[in-house]
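During the reporting period the student researcher (J.K.) took over the structure-prediction task from the postdoctoral fellow and processed the backlog of single-chain submissions. One of the processed entries is reproduced below for the supervisory committee.
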Amino acid sequence: MTLVMVGVGAMGSAMGARLIERGHVVVGVDPFLAPVGSAGTSVDGVLVLHSLAAIKGQGTRPSEVLVFVRLYDQVVSVLEDLAADPWFDGVPVSVLSTLRPSDARALADRFATTRPLTEAPVSGGVLGARTGTMTVLLAGAPVSWLEDAATTVFRFEGYGLPAAAKLLNNALGAANAHALTATIEQAAGLGLDPAQMLDVVRVSSGGGWMADHFEDFPVDLLWKDFGLLHDDYSVAFPSTTIDSDLMGAVAAARHRTATERSTTGNDAAER
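J.K. obtained the following structure tokens:
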């Protein structure tokens, strides 16, 4: 079976290399980067062609197509090209690109009636893609590559929900990063050394992923995802002052999540 990876940037090429190591045949396509008419090249051991049409020259009909391009319009273009070519009729498609929830639902409304379609945004960065340790948020049809690419899988009942979960998590990351910067600023006002305060946070109750990766976390990607979610939903996070009802908010959130787990059975991710 042959997997076609459309989009072989840093993430796509890393994931393709991982899948090859795990025994899959992977062919890359990057019509948005490679000049039309260019010969096939190799990226991280993945053969890269310039168009979906060029796949036919490989002589084997793909078993699945994975779409890992950057923009929604590019995803639509890929799916339109697949729909226009009878050679790809019925070939399952997984969309790994990060989209607005409304865009993910629009793709499903338009294309899921003619072929198996999976919404599968991922988390874990290039290292996770290369080592097969990504987290995948999944809705739609089953896929053959999941076990070799991910160590954690969350399944959702409807299209658009994986996108919403990924974007909301990254929006929370952006809010946490903003709170951490405020902590560092206020440390100086209290006569504390800001660098030392950051070290205190890293090993104490205020710590977390943002503090651990403060020097190099991808603030541009977090803010981009905050914006994508805000396009669909007016997301906001509260500031914390002495007048905030933090205890009430925490109690309500704990009750709500516990109740949902007991009634829906959505207890944990697959690992």
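The committee noted the following: The CA atoms of residues 202 and 212 lie 6 Å apart.
J.K. will present the remaining backlog at the next meeting.
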